[in-house]
Design brief:
Strand order of the largest sheet: 1-2-6-5-4-3
Largest sheet: 6 strands, antiparallel
Helix content: 25-40%
Number of domains: 1
Radius of gyration: 17 Å
Order of helices and strands: HHEEHEEHEHE
Structural class: alpha+beta
Oligomer: single chain
Length: 140
């Protein structure tokens, strides 16, 4: 019981002292395994920021300093058979049938790439890390 209380208090203190900025971290090994099994490569130099794959969390966010169009081209070339939803300012590449709006890609493997100027402030990244890459691999 003491160990549980100590762990909870330690966690609370860490939250208090690190409030405000969440720092980018390494992609957990279980998530690397899920990406490998799904055959989804990471864009070169992309940094994991938050999220995860498998279990209850099935989306991971990455940041890159590369131009959005370069990252989009990379994933489009890797997955030429995947459908693309580029309506309403979004760019979502997904493993499914084209058309149908959000219902077509919900619950499917997907990669979203867009500009997010807040990434550096949110995760303590370099100011040029403004290309957001979201990868979703739904649980099997």
């Amino acid at each position: 019981m003491k160990k549980v209380v100590r762990s909870i208090l330690t966690g609370c203190l860490l939250l208090v002292f690190s409030a405000g900025i969440a720092l980018a971290a390494d992609l957990p090994a279980k998530d690397v395994k899920i990406l490998n099994e799904a055959s989804i490569p990471l864009y070169k130099g992309a940094e994991f920021t938050n999220g995860g794959l498998g279990d209850e969390v099935m989306g991971a966010r990455f940041a890159s300093s590369a131009p959005v169009e370069d990252v989009r081209k990379f994933y489009r070339e890797k997955f030429p058979g995947w459908a693309l939803n580029d309506q309403y300012g979004s760019w979502i590449l997904y493993n499914g049938e084209p058309g149908g709006g959000p219902a077509a890609y919900m619950g499917k493997q997907q990669i979203s790439v867009r500009v997010e100027k807040n990434l550096p402030d949110w995760f303590g990244l370099g100011k040029n890390m403004t290309t957001e890459i979201m990868i979703v691999v739904p649980p099997k």
